[in-house]
Amino acid sequence: MPTLDEVQNGKGGGDYHGPTNYKTPDGKVHQINKFHQPRNVLDDIHFGCQSRDFIGVQLVGGMGSGKTTLATFIAHNLQKKHPYKVVWIGKEQITNADKIIEELSSEDHIIIFDDVSKALEGLPMDRKKKIIQAFLEIRHMRGKQNARKVISIVNVHHFYAWEKTWRMQNVFSIFTEITNQEMIKVIKDQVNPRDFHYVDKFSKLSYQMFFKNKFELQIAPKTTRTFITNHPFRMALVTYAGRLKFMLYHLDKCGLCERTADSGKTLVSAKHLVDVALEKYGASMSTIMKLECMSRGFKRAVSKKYYCAHQDFYALMGKYSVSWEDLAKELENRSSYPKRTWNREKNTANMRNSPPKEQVEFINAVIQGNLKQKPSNNIALNNEDED
Question: CATH classification of 20-249, choosing from 3.90.226.10, 3.40.190.10, 3.10.180.10, 3.40.50.300?
């Protein structure tokens, strides 16, 4: 059996057909079929992007089938190979996607379009064309050809739920579950007919995963293993370049790759938020909001020097580590700001977990003012007018 190092680094293998070891983030080592581990797919996505400058990946599956988990897993593991910047664009932001893309830096990016089924339907044709054109020029930056390398991950409920012009750019199709319609119309056009029985097998595995909460896989000749759904794995079907394979995946993320978009939350007015925040907290809140804007790809909120410092720091942290506790202490010791002398008002009796009074007042001020003026956009903290 190959060692863990051989599996993680792609060494060894040869004609070996037995199980291989796979280590999950919790430190546990699992025996799986070597053809089910995701390394080869991740390598092909990464190296394909490096040679072509762009790779499109489409994730297909119903609600709750694990598409967002899979998108995060792919982004996180690709970040381990290369310092990609991860940007999430949800359905609530898609109508301003061209503006978001325009604001992207020249870094290599993974852009995840999360849950965007039929998201462009109903838009005026000229607005829709601008967004589609921005997608097609996503590698470019203000007219510069191939300014950055981009991996696009589109997450939809069924294969035809995304614009055809953009759908045709996707090299990889990954299914977290599959319907009969997709089995007939999609897969047969993408894989060799003699491999179609694998598609039928995946359909049965999907049924086991979601309705029996377990699924059985062969991990070696004449050896099977039963996996409990989400403990830690789910199974996906991958098709690309005429190939078809199964891929196990699991929850794997970090603060740089997981989604921070505000999907499903009430949108507040950016203008009123800034007015209230600056009046109550001044430069301190301004700094916090600028950091949040920058983490979402909107570098316009900060100066060029500030943005370069941010990118340099994250490039360093991508390769090295630091004791965050020691760093916080060092920054505190070197801070030129005076120590805070005021204390928050104590929580009222019998409400040990109640929020501080200042926090309640701040939120109430933003919400009450927001009722008087509707937000002019669909992107938090971006108060530009739409075209």
Answer: 3.40.50.300
